[in-house]
Amino acid sequence: MEPGGTATVMASVRTALAEGVKEWKPRVQAMAHEIHSNPEVAFEEVRSSEAAAALLAEGGFTVERGTGGLPTAFTATAGSGALKVALCVEYDALPNIGHACGHNLIAGASVAAALALRPYVDELGITLKAIGTPAEENGGGKALLLERGAFDGISLALMVHPVQDGVTYNPAGTSAQAMGRYKATFVGRAAHAAAAPHLGVNAADAAVLSQVAVGLLRQQIPGDHRIALFVAEAGHATNIIPERAVVEFECRAFTLREYEALLERVRGCFEGAALATGTTLIIEATEPAYEPLLQDNALAAHWTDAMFTFGKDTSTSGDMSGGSTDMGNVSQVIPTLHPWLSIPGANVPIHSHEFAVFADSPEAYSVMFEAATALAWTIAGAATTPAERERFIKAAYRRQTVTAKVPHEYQH
Asked: What sign for the dihedral angle of Cα 342, 347, 350, 352?
């Protein structure tokens, strides 16, 4: 089929793609359930990534494991067309809480869409890549894969993300926040807490003061900014003045400029705590920074049209109130679609035990397959609309020559 086919041809393609999703439904749902039942955290998704990669290989994709030097990443490729499309497959879970962000559904939607598209890649003139992207919750897997060439030549990138009930399926105008995560280490001097406390320098006091300062700062920042922290270390015995304390924190804002300004103010809180207690302070980034999410309007229109067909709420939405994704990094350099998948009945917040239960429910799997069909239709629509196809091909990603510095612990 030549790009720019008639509406009749497109309707036929839509029917075929929907049938393809239906054909793979039992296998994909079993895979998504397996991922949910065996949650694996960032960079440890051995079983989850293999389940997705193996199913794609069964469906006719050529699979490369260990993409970008990340053991739990993979790239599954089919076709050789000029329009290069990436479907991102997430599968990492949250520590101690499992799939409370529904990444099993993200994996299922992307894999099902890829399998449905596989027989039609030549007709659509596309090279289709399903890219297994580990460590979204923490670690910035997509940021690392961007730097290491996994997205070279890609013209558009897509995925979906589950959210609670009641969120519109129209992604136009929605975004996600820039975010950076850091470790603040205060170093003092140990001493006996009873015999000679005056000879010690209490690093735990610095951790307490930094929390108070950040808490007071929250009143003075815009309502869509976010600061979160926890004390990772602050002493080990009551009879020793703590000589080391560690506070891990993150900052979020919807623009990079606002994020950087917020980060400087938070740094000031930690520096003030160090000054007040006489401790020394080291602040280090713990993972690549996440950039704001940009939705491509043309892809959003195709997706919204598809979800309207399924009877979903496609009313215009404002920006998301919070949250970040390393898909934001992809969206800054590649036309991207990252819509929200509202789970019926899930009237609970994401990142909760209750949401983890909903992520493995019949209702969740039902909308997952609707999303898979919509993703496939969106790709077909972009591939067969001449002006869009030309724009996307011209937008193919080419890496910059300067590679961002990656913390040692993430240099796999």
From this structure: negative
